[in-house]
Design a protein that fits this description.
Elements lengths: L1 H6 L2 H9 L5 H8 L7 H21 L11 H8 L6 H22 L10 H6 L4 H8 L14 H27 L4 E9 L2 E7 L9 E5 L5 E5 L1 H51 L1
Antiparallel strand pairs: 1-2, 2-4, 3-4
Helix pairs in contact: 2-3, 3-10, 5-10, 6-8, 6-10, 9-10
Length: 274
């Protein structure tokens, strides 16, 4: 029987069909297909194809614009893992695609989809969670200010303290221009420091963070910057804690629907194959 399929170049046919699928698992399943001899199965599949062709002719092809394989991601979050910003964005893309797919079939006015309707109707819109995700993460995983009021307030305070630190450092450099080296303002261990001539390293209070390679200059944190640097680091810690809290809450909400979303992803792949 296998030789007969080879003579018919079935593998080449399947390859051509698979190339038009979007999801990788859809492609793999298509490549593994073999002719069906059970009448009910091939009648059902022909009915699927007939209805799919009618939809395409009436409203155009269905574009699975997001087809990343996130089965492992969904399995991970279902077990209680906390997702990062990029992973949450991928979830939002899948939730958007589910809504897009349901809306696609809703456009059909003339096509009969009695067989396909079960597949499309099984998809569940998660609009509330999707809205939260849209206000939380970007495509590069950045957590937006709109994720929480607390995060927005912390970041505003952080911007203000960073501005104050810069102004204070610049004022110091101007005031002690004869004692600083090349007006260098730098950053070490997340603290703003100033490069001064080594002979003056203990003249301004605060802390000394080391000497230059030549030993002629020293990196110092004058007393005027110590408290400001501490405030900045404290705010950065609070920002990280708030971001973690946001990721944890959203991951828990994704976990609550993960079983349904995994089922929806399987359905999308099935529709893609058809």
């Amino acid at each position: 029987m296998k030789n007969s399929y080879q003579c018919l170049e079935l593998d080449q046919i399947l390859k051509q069909v698979a190339e038009n699928a979007f999801f990788m698992l859809s492609k793999q399943k298509i490549m593994q297909e073999s002719p069906m001899f059970h009448e009910l199965l091939w009648q059902r599949n022909l009915a699927y194809l007939k209805e799919a062709m009618a939809l395409i002719q009436e409203i155009g092809p269905l574009d699975f614009y997001f087809h990343k394989d996130i089965h492992a991601l969904l399995l991970k979050v279902s077990k209680g893992s906390i997702l990062n910003g990029c992973e949450l964005f991928d979830v939002s893309q899948l939730l958007s695609l589910i809504i897009f797919t349901k809306n696609y079939v809703a456009k059909a006015k003339n096509s009969e989809i009695s067989f396909l309707s079960d597949l499309f109707n099984s998809l569940v819109k998660q609009e509330t969670l999707l809205e939260k995700l849209h206000h939380t993460v970007t495509n590069d995983g950045t957590i937006l200010d709109t994720a929480s009021i607390e995060l927005k307030n912390i970041r505003q305070s952080l911007q203000q303290i960073e501005k104050t630190i810069l102004n204070t450092a610049q004022d110091f450099v101007r005031k002690y221009s004869d004692k600083v080296v090349d007006q260098v303002i730098t950053n070490r261990d997340n603290r703003t420091l100033i490069l001064v001539k080594a002979t003056y390293k203990n003249a301004f209070g605060g802390y000394v963070y080391g000497d230059s390679a030549s030993g002629l200059a020293s990196y110092i944190e004058p007393s005027s910057l110590v408290n400001l640097n501490n405030q900045k680091i404290n705010l950065q810690t609070r920002e990280e804690e708030e971001e973690y809290k946001i990721l944890k809450i959203l991951s828990q909400q994704v976990q609550e629907i993960s079983t349904q979303v995994m089922a929806d992803l399987d359905t999308l792949e099935e529709i893609d194959m058809i």
